[in-house]
């Protein structure tokens, strides 16, 4: 059975849908993701374009990172980040949106499978997931 996730920002102004399984689910520790998402590490899923219905860009704020091919999209009313697009060019949806529709818990099928760019971390993480020192685990 294919799962459908109806996602929205905190105020409900922006909605989007993700269907099926993500291409990847991970924690990213690279400096670019930390800067773009203003977080100690990015916790997110990456989706094939065919598996997401993204919101109309006119409803979003768009933040393009200087000097990088990385963009973050979010709600201009409540400020919530909805997704980003960066290497490898697929929509990257933060896990927070999935937790929001599941009582604060991340669905088992969406749980991260590895850490990317762990060498660049600012926070040590003690878990059993693979700690890829660069992006080689996903072909970056």
From TrEMBL:
Keywords: Lyase, Metal-binding, Zinc. The keyword Lyase applies. The keyword Metal-binding applies. GO terms for molecular function: carbon-sulfur lyase activity; metal ion binding. It holds the Pfam family GFA. SUPFAM superfamilies: Mss4-like. PANTHER family: CENP-V_GFA DOMAIN-CONTAINING PROTEIN-RELATED (PTHR33337:SF40), GFA DOMAIN-CONTAINING PROTEIN (PTHR33337). Belongs to the Gfa family. This is CENP-V/GFA domain-containing protein. It comes from Salinisphaera japonica YTM-1.
């Amino acid at each position: 059975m294919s799962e459908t996730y109806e996602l929205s920002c905190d105020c409900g102004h922006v909605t989007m849908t993700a269907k099926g399984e993500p291409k990847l689910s991970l924690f990213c520790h690279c400096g670019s993701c930390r800067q773009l998402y203003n977080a100690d590490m990015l916790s997110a899923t990456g989706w094939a374009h065919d598996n997401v219905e993204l919101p109309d860009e006119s409803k979003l704020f768009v933040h393009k990172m200087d000097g990088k091919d990385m963009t973050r999209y979010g709600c201009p009313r409540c400020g919530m980040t909805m997704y980003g697009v960066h290497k490898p060019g697929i929509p990257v949806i933060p896990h927070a949106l999935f937790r929001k529709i599941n009582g604060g818990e991340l669905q088992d099928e969406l749980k991260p499978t590895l850490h990317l760019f762990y060498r660049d971390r600012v926070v040590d993480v003690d878990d059993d997931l693979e700690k890829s020192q660069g992006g080689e685990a996903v072909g970056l």
